[in-house]
Design brief:
The chain has 206 residues and is an alpha+beta fold. 17% of the residues lie in helices and 32% in strands. It has five helices and twelve strands. The strands form three sheets. The chain has a seven-stranded antiparallel sheet with strand order 3-2-6-9-10-5-4. The protein has a three-stranded antiparallel sheet with strand order 1-11-12, with no helix packed on it. Strand 9 and strand 10 form a beta hairpin. The longest helix has 10 residues. The two termini are 32 Å apart.
């Protein structure tokens, strides 16, 4: 049996800052890898990589994602509050490096689309841009923000208004086969993986 390294809460707190960040961010496993695209009322676009987008409910269809405390400029959040709309775009193996580059702290007047050579795409008069290269594109409408009192982070709730998916990824029962699209996932803040499906099981009953 492999030996295990033990980190008590005190030992973890005393780790070097980036060692602690890497450890805590990666121990929870694979996370979704998405680009959130938004714009302001003047049409200036913004694009940022997120690993915190999660399903919240199917009826009605909702998602949520988290943001660090709004103590510094958060261009994505500011655009969402201004226009109430944004898009979520799956990241594939083909543009991982460009997607990660959107995490750089560009000035507000610089569009990450232009900085990374990713293309904007607009569907059905939806006001926020989609990422043209993404095989799964979700148009969302902002609903609410909840502050997490324990650390000041923000939980953003949104409804799913539009969905665009490459047809070859969709099974007859609606299941989306992410592995067929080489959809990436994130471990920690900067580790990118391409998972594969092992199995699908029927609804479990006693």
């Amino acid at each position: 049996m492999n030996s295990k390294k033990h980190y008590s809460q005190k030992k973890t707190e005393n780790l070097e800052r980036f060692t602690k960040i890497n450890l805590i961010n990666s121990i929870t496993g694979y996370k979704s890898a998405n680009l959130i695209a938004s714009n302001n009322k003047k049409g200036k676009t913004n694009l940022a990589v997120f690993n915190s987008v999660c399903h919240l409910g199917s009826e009605p269809a909702m998602i949520h994602f988290t943001l660090r405390p709004h103590t510094v400029a958060r261009h994505t959040y500011e655009n969402i509050l201004e226009t109430k709309f944004f898009t979520i775009n799956a990241i594939t193996e083909s543009f991982i490096e460009q997607a990660h580059q959107t995490s750089a702290k560009y000035p507000k007047d610089v569009s990450e689309f232009e900085a990374t050579n990713l293309e904007t795409l607009y569907h059905n008069n939806f006001t926020a841009p989609f990422v043209k290269e993404s095989p799964i594109q979700i148009g969302c409408k902002y609903l609410n923000t909840y502050e997490i009192k324990e650390n000041g982070c923000l939980l953003i709730i949104a409804s799913i208004e539009e969905i665009f998916i490459d047809e070859q990824l969709i099974s007859q029962d609606g299941f989306v086969n992410l592995d067929k699209g080489n959809i990436a996932s994130i471990v920690g803040l900067d580790g990118y993986y391409i998972p594969k499906k092992i199995a699908r099981f029927p609804y479990a009953r006693p």
